[in-house]
Amino acid sequence: MDSKFLYSLKPTLITDSEKQYFDAIKNALTDEYIVQPQVNLASIITRNDNSTFINELFRNIDFCVFDKLYHPIILIEINDQSHNSSKRKERDHKVKKICDEAGIKVVTFWTSYGVNQEYISKTVNEAIADAPNFVRIAHSAEDKDNKSQKNKPKKAQKGACYIATAVYGTYDCPSVWVLRRFRDNRLDKTAFGRMVIRLYYYISPKLLKCFGGRGWFDNFWKSVLDRFVSSLKSKGYSSEPYEDKDYNNL
Question: How many CA atoms lie within 13 A of 69 on its CB side?
Answer without folding.
Answer: 1
